[in-house]
Amino acid sequence: MVIGETPPAPARRMGAMMGGTVTAVSSNGEYAFTKPNRPGITLLAGLGVEGDVHAGVTVKHRSRMAQDPTRPNLRQVHLIHEELFEEVAEKGFTVRPGDLGENITTRGLDLLTLPTGTLLHIGAEAVVEVTGLRNPCLQIDAFQDGLLKHVVGRDEKTGAVVRRAGIMAVVTIGGPVRPGDTVAVELPDGPHRPLDRV
Q1: How would DSSP label each residue in 181-198?
Q2: Name one Pfam family in it (predicted).
Q3: What are the residue ranges spanned by the domains of the chain?
Q4: What pLDDT score does 68 carry?
Q5: What is the pLDDT of residues 2-22, one digit of tens each?
Q6: Are residues 196 and 70 in contact, defined by beta-carbon separation less than 8 angstroms?
Q7: How far apart are CA 139 and CA 20, in angstroms?
Q8: For site-directed labelling of 105, which of 19, 82, 140, 193 has its Cα 20 to 30 A away?
Q9: Contact 122, 180 (CB under 8 A)
């Protein structure tokens, strides 16, 4: 690029929010609340995590399949920020990567404040598009009693529901993802829409 030339739009948008890192990756071929950690996972465009029970073009979460199995799968990849585990540890809970069913655990990136449509460039190849927030359910209390109220609550000022159990995404470009990979953020063109549950 020539000095003084305006960088392409994605580079401008990515510059301010780079620096996140993948700390763990997890997948499970069977329905279970937790997902075992893996040395690496492979993201498949339009599907999700290779070999994971939630991969597919249409919904794979059992509650959503019961409602309408033909709906598009907006929950192909589940990401959680590792900092959440440290917050709940202060309340006496032990949560490790994969325990809450996420596929990708990150550090150094405020996932919950990203707008809908954000692209996350993970590692050398993979790209996922953020679709919304995970909606925490009662299974979290079945995993550790009392944990649910620490990952979902209400804003003291507005009374709005605050969901903190990670975000969901779809895979736009496939590729391998491993612990240590960087995560770069490409924000969508404005106006930005805040995340809602999917």
Answers
A1: -EEEEEPPSSSP----B-
A2: MOSC
A3: 17-186
A4: 87
A5: 334 333 444 334 444 557 999
A6: no
A7: 28
A8: 193
A9: no
